[in-house]
Amino acid sequence: MKSHLLMMAVLHFWIALVAYTLASLAYGRCLSSCSKVPPQSEINSLRALYASTTGNHWTVSWNLSTGNPCAGWHGVRCCSVKSVCHVVAVQLTANNLVGSIPSAIDGLTALQTLELANNNLHSHIPSSIGNLTALTELALYLNALTGPIPSTIGNLRSLQYLFLYSNALRGPIPSTVEHLKALQYLFLYANALTGPIPTTIGNLTALTWLDVSSNALTGPIPSTIGDLSSLQNLFLDSNALTGRIPASVGNLTALTWLALYSNALTGPIPSTIGDLRSLQRLYLYDNVLTGPIPSSIGALTALTTLFLSSNALTGPIPSTIRGLPSMQLMYLYANALTGPIPSTIGNLTALTQLFLYSNALTGPIPSTIEHLSALQYLFLYANALTGPIPSSLGHVTTLTQLALFANALTGSIPSTIGALTALQYLYLYANLLTGPIPPSIGNLTALTQLHVATNSLTGPIPSSIGALTSLQILYLYGNTLTGPLPSSVGHLTSLQYLYLYANALTGPLPSTVANLTSLMQLLVYGNLLTGPVPERLPTSLQYLLIEDCLLSGVLSSVFEGPNLTSVNAESNLFSGLA
């Protein structure tokens, strides 16, 4: 998910860059720039803007004494129209404007571009903004503007780019936006807008990008959304939208991004989703969607990202996913999906992250998973998967995190696990695994967490465990491991948590435990350990639980470490205190 958030942050940075570029392009449409004095009404509007936004404290201020804004005032661009020099662009992004937009701004009747973004503007957007009927781009994003979007915004019939995101605007999206027939980009995200998405939104047929995410919008997604035939990017996420995803969304055949996540949408995913053949990213997670994943999803051959997690989806993962060769991120976790993981999963050779955890999936892990040669994260935990861990998993050498815990997997840990040399996290606990821990585990030198507890593993702890010098967490508890704790454990100088309790380990605690200078918790209780406790233990140790063993000798000051807060040595054969 962090990768998704980073992706969204990069996206919004790109939007800001687009806004700036579009402003420059708007000025570029001026066929004849000029430096003559513009009409007095335009000069008055600029002076009003200067006065209401503490112009003397701007980063780059205006020299009002020149009296001619077209002769070098920062951010002001002028163009000759019918032999009259008019102000056509005011670009003052990130110029430390503090104050409010004056209602007298409407004197700039020839203005095409108004860009006052990334400043400290507050108060309302004046309704007089609707008088700037030549405006093609309005960029007021990244300010502290409050109040409603004025209904007069509908008067701006030439407007192509409207950027009001990242303010504190309230109230509804005015229905008058229906008149903005030339609008291509509408960015209202990250405000406090309320009410429904107006059904008249469907009139904006030139729209290519619509982002009203991160507001407090309510009600259904209007079916008229399907009339936006030019739409390429649709972001309605992070609101309080309810009702079903309209089937008409399938009409948006130019769509590349669809983000409806973090709402309260219900009902099924419409099968018409399969008509979005240009779709690259589909985000429907964190809703209350029900029913199956439609098999038509397999028609989305351009899809790279599929986030359907945290819903109430049921039924199987459709085998038609084999038709998603571009898929990189598949998040289906936290649903109620049933049935097996389809063997066709092996067709997704571009996949880097596969998250299917917290469902009710059954059957074996398909051996075809070996074909996922780019896979880095495989999270299948908290299902009801059975059968062995396929030895073919060792072919997925790109894996960095493998989480198969809380299933009913049987058989042994395959020795091929040792081929996963990039692995950092290995979680196999709470299964029914048997047999020994394979010595090849020592090949996983990048491993920081190894958790194979609460299985039925037998045999010794392999001495090769000492090669895992990056290991911070080693949980082997709740098995039937036998033999001694190998002295090579002393090489694990990064180890913080060593949980070996509830096994059948024998022999002494090796003196090399003293080398574990990062160790905070040592839990070895409930074993058959014998002999004395080493005279030296790590000073970093906080928890020492060695009860219910066969340890002997004399208890010494070793139990008075500077950081020890919990010690239990009961039910051993100690003879007393030194």
What Rg is obtained from the alpha carbons, in whole angstroms? 32 Å
Amino- and carboxy-terminal Cα gap: 54 Å
User: SS-based structural class?
Assistant: mainly beta
Largest sheet: 22 strands, mixed
- Nearest-integer average pLDDT: 94
Strand tally: 42
Helix share, percent? under 10%
> Which residues form runs of ≥5 with pLDDT under 50?
none
* Total of helices: 2
Gross morphology is elongated
The proportion of residues in beta strands is 25-35%
Describe the oligomeric state of these chains in a short phrase: single chain
How would you characterize the overall build of this protein?
It is a single chain. It is built from two helices and 42 strands. The chain has 578 residues and is mostly beta strands. The strands form four sheets. The chain has a 22-stranded mixed sheet, with helices on one face. Strand 1 (76-81) and strand 2 form a beta hairpin. 43% of the residues are buried. The model has no long low-confidence stretch (mean pLDDT 94).
